[in-house]
Amino acid sequence: MSETQSILQELNDRSREVFRLVVESYLDSGDPVGSRTLTRSLNEKISAATIRNVMQDLEYLGLLDSPHVSAGRIPTQMGLRMFVDGLLEVGDLTQSDRQKIDATLTSSNSNDVGGVLDRIGAALSGVTHGASLVLAPKHEAEIRHIEFVSLAQDRALVVLVLADGHVENRLFTPPPGQTPSSMREAANFLNTVIEGRTLTNARAVIRTEISARRQEIDSLAREMVESGFAVWDEGDGDSARLIVRGRANLLAENGYGDELDRIRTLFDDLERKRDIEQFLDLTEEGEGVRIFIGSENKLFSLSGSSLVVSPYMNADRKIIGAVGVIGPTRLNYGRIVPIVDYTAQLVGKLIADRS
Predict the structure, then answer these.
(1) Which residues pair with 245 in a beta bridge?
(2) H/E stretch holding 224
(3) N or C: which end of the chain has fewer CB within 10 A?
C-alpha cells in the first residue's frame, strides 16, 4: 500500500469530504479554497471554525498548503496524488469529444499514418485545452531497395524503398571523389546485403560484410556505403517520432517569468527529441492510463506540469507508442483520462488495421 493510500484510509469521513471538496474546487477554479466556501458545499452543517481545524490537520499531513497567510488552501502534489489514486471519479467520454477525435480519421486518407497522427494530436490538444503528445511508432518494415542519387558535388540523396511501399530519403554530403560508378557499386553492394532486412537489423550486417569483403569493394564505394547509410543514425528515420501539439495552450495556462521559462524549456527538450525514449518508458508497466503529477517524472518536473499518458499497441499486442496530454497540475483529470484512453485505443486500432 502506498503512503497516500495509507493516509486516506486513516482519515475520518469529515476530513475526507473536506479534502475532496478542496481539491475539486481547486481543480475547477485554480484558486485557494476557504472555510466559508466549504460551509456552503458540505452536506452536514459544520461551522467555519471546525472546517478550519480540519484543514489545518490536512495541512499538517502534507495534503494541503496555504499559499498566503490569510488565504484558503490548495492541494499539495502529495494531496493531488492521493486524490487521483483514491477519490478521483472518472467520467465517460462525451459524444462531442468522441466525434472531434473520430473526425481525424474520416477527414483524410487513413493510409497516411503520419498525417493522421498529426491531426489526432491537434484534435487531442483542442479537446483537452492542453498540450498533446503522440509518440508515433518507428518504421520497421523490410527493405526492398536502396539507391544513391547525386545532386551536386557536395550533396547526394539516399533513397530507401521499404517492402510496404513506404519511401524515405535523406540528404547527405558524400565522401570526396565520388563518381557515378562508385555510387552504383555502393548501391549494388547494399542491395545484395540488406534486402529483406529491417533498417535496424541491416546495420550490424553491413558492418560485418564491409569488414569481410573489404578487398572486393572499391574504397570509394565503401566510403559511400558507410556515409550514405550512416545518415539514418544521425536522423530519426528509424526512431520513434514525437508529435507535440498545443504548446500555446500550456503557455497560456501558466503565469509569467520563471514559470513560462520552465514551460519553454520543456517543449524545447521535447522538440529536440531529448528523453524521447523516456516518454515511452512511462508506459512500460502495461496497458492503461497513467498520471504523473509535477516532479513525479523528471521529464516534466521542471515545468511543474502533469502528464496523463496511455500506451497503444499493434496487432501483436506489443506497446509501440503512446498518447498523452500535458497540462497544469490542476487538470480536470476525471475528464482527461477517458479522452486519452479512447485516443490511445483509436491510434492502436489504426496501426493494427494498417499492418
Answers:
(1) 132
(2) helix 219-234
(3) N
| Diameter over CA atoms, the chain | 91
Residues 6+ apart with CB under 8 A from 227: 172, 173, 174, 175
Amino acid identity of residue 282, one-letter, is L
Which pTM value belongs to this model?
Answer: 0.72
Nearest to 266 by CA among 312, 307, 323: 307
**Cα–Cα distance, 105 to 109 (Å, whole number):** 8
Strands 74-75 and 167-172: unpaired
Please tell me the CATH code under which domain 3-86 is placed: 1.10.10.10
Q: What DSSP state is assigned to residue 92?
A: P
**Average pLDDT for 59-87:** 89
Q: Which part of the chain is CATH 3.30.390.10?
A: 143-234
Strand, coil or helix: 318 = coil
**pLDDT at site 99:** 93
In CATH terms, the superfamily for domain 95-137+240-354 is GAF domain (3.30.450.40)
Could you tell me where in the chain the CATH 3.30.450.40 domains are found?
A: 95-137+240-354
pLDDT at 277 over 80: no
Spatial separation of the C-alpha atoms in residues 222 and 182, rounded to whole Å:
9
Residue 180 and residue 306: Cα distance in Å, rounded? Answer: 54
CA neighbor of 322 nearest in space, from 304, 303, 301, 297: 297
CA distance 120 to 114: 10
Q: Which fold has domain 143-234?
A: Enolase-like; domain 1 (3.30.390)
pLDDT range class, residue 19, cuts 50, 70, 90: very high
